[in-house]
Amino acid sequence: MTMDTNKKLAVFIASAIVLAVLPFVVGNTLGNSWVRTIDFALLYVMLALGLNIVVGFAGLLDLGFIAFYAVGAYTFALLGSPHFDIHLPFYISIPLGAGLAAMFGLLLGTPVLKLKGDYLAIVTLGFGEIVRIFMNNLNAPVNITNGPQGINLIDPIQVGGVSLGKAIEVFGFSLNPVHMYYYVFLFLTVVVVIMVYRLQHSRIGRAWVAMREDSIAAAAMGLNIRNIKLLAFALGALSGGVAGGLFATFQGFISPESFGLLESIMILAMVVLGGMGHIPGVILGAVVLTIAPEVLRDVIGPLQMHTFGKMIVDPENARMLLFGAAMVIMMLVRPEGMWPSKRRAAEFKDAKKG
Amino acid sequence: MSEVLLKIEGINKRFGGLHALSNVSLHINKGEIYGLIGPNGAGKTTMFNVLTGLYTPDEGSFTFDGNDLFRAPPHVVVKTGIARTFQNIRLFHEMTALENVMVGRHIRSSANALGAVLRNKSTRDEEAAIEAKAWELLRYVGIDDVAYERAKNLSYGHQRRLEIARALATEPKLLALDEPAAGMNPSETESLKALMEKIRDGGVTVLLIEHDVKLMMGLCDRIAVLDYGKKIAEGVPEVVRKDPKVIEAYLGVAHE
């Protein structure tokens, strides 16, 4: 027992140190663009963990998850940019965006209570597109979202008079925005991880699993299926909304283009590839699927030049091709994901046998 | 006359042209074991699903322990005090036996999402109480030695018992069992019978659907017989057994 706790503590301290120094090590060796990629990886971890509540815990296939990211992002942008000349501080607009996203979660959840599987997927897909198209067209007759041009000059986060949007000097260290945002994102990612972990191991989490496994038996045990489903949609949307707000302030610019169907599919792929319902697996899935395309981008071009002396396949195309192939192979060889929970791994094992 | 716990009057349920239940009335008294028998397709399981809120009846009235449950959704029915098992066992297969019973405690606990995230003292206490109660129930039905096994890996008899424990976790006043002895050997049936008597003596009224007429005759305080969606007899086992309509339903009528 003590051995186990000691080991856990050691792992915890080691990972805390690694995570603390990561942006500087990466920034000094690979360059700050990689720190930026890591920042995005953290955003995607939050998104994937949010979607994992809906897909992994509650077993509801959602192809429109990016809509909640969009709601969070637009809330922040509209409340912190020259567009309306409102400049609310982040500690108001991020919770507000998260709350609004949760409400959109309920808005999506309510009409689809009776749907499951493919039918649910199609409705949620439509929902995601509706939100995007609204963002695209809400510039007339009254200009709310500024349409396809998007919203520019979004306020950076300000902490105690220090803007995270400009590099600062601390004890001779130069802190870039990518570094500072890294810590903000890391902090909120940890908050989201704790949130979903505790939810999973609670009365609510048990109810989700029960509903996923057999909703009739769950109803017969007195579970209010409607409320449990809506709660999953709302809580998943909540973390999507937080990530959206962070994305807006980090980029300084958002447009409807960032919230397309492909993004929804990407986040779903992170959840499925990582290991549906398993928090460490989902985190791994999000990190790998954010970093891998960037690595391929850096490798494919030079590799072709080196071996063939000329560019045979356009690196951008080759990157997506390899990436797609990797996903297909992964799903064939390890459908349960890279790092599945014991329960999920057993389900797949039994399914194969039977 | 003992106190009536469940009272349904004139229940009708149609599926398209099929009149699955026509004008069925039942009264179940507090503290008895009440049996519902009938040939295949007589409407027993339909009746069960109506009583537990999974089906909404077309007409009739349904009161339980002073509450009107006509067309009430399942979670309201469970909250009022009716719990059930299924004919074709419906456990949460990938959950452990313990977790299955803990799900049954859902309706008698109240921690919300905020409590779950903050993990405050009342949530932790409640969670501990849920687990303690689940252990108690596993011991009660005699399967606490397999608490950490996944439900699907349990033997058939253990799965049946687990379903009963899960239903008891909702603290029912009426426990409705849909063919609990199906597929059991005589010794398993015998110990199941003992369990049902223990449950009744613990103050829970039991409603039982069963094919095994012999078991029913020895166990039930009163029996109702359904045939083609109609109640054709009701009473103590000795009387029902001799009822010509019951004999006809089960064996067919002799042609002269």
From TrEMBL, chain A:
It is found in: Cell membrane. Keywords: ATP-binding, Cell membrane, Membrane, Nucleotide-binding, Transmembrane, Transmembrane helix. Pfam families: BPD_transp_2. It comes from Vogesella margarita. The keyword ATP-binding applies. InterPro entries: ABC_transp_permease, LivM-like. GO terms for molecular function: ATP binding. It is a multi-pass membrane protein. This is ABC transporter ATP-binding protein. It comes from the Bacteria. The chain crosses the membrane at residues 37-58, 65-84, 90-110, 117-135, 180-199, 230-254, 266-296. The keyword Thylakoid does not apply. Its main location: membrane.
Automatic annotation (TrEMBL), chain B:
Residues 6-253 form the ABC transporter domain. It comes from the Bacteria. Gene3D superfamilies: P-loop containing nucleotide triphosphate hydrolases (3.40.50.300). CDD domains: ABC_Mj1267_LivG_branched. The keyword RNA-binding does not apply. GO terms for molecular function: ATP binding. InterPro entries: AAA+_ATPase (IPR003593), ABC_AA/LPS_Transport (IPR051120), ABC_transporter-like_ATP-bd (IPR003439), BCA_ABC_TP_C (IPR032823), P-loop_NTPase (IPR027417). It holds the Pfam family BCA_ABC_TP_C. The keyword Cell membrane applies. Keywords: ATP-binding, Cell membrane, Membrane, Nucleotide-binding, Transport. This is ABC transporter ATP-binding protein. The lineage of its organism: Bacteria, Pseudomonadati, Pseudomonadota, Betaproteobacteria, Neisseriales.
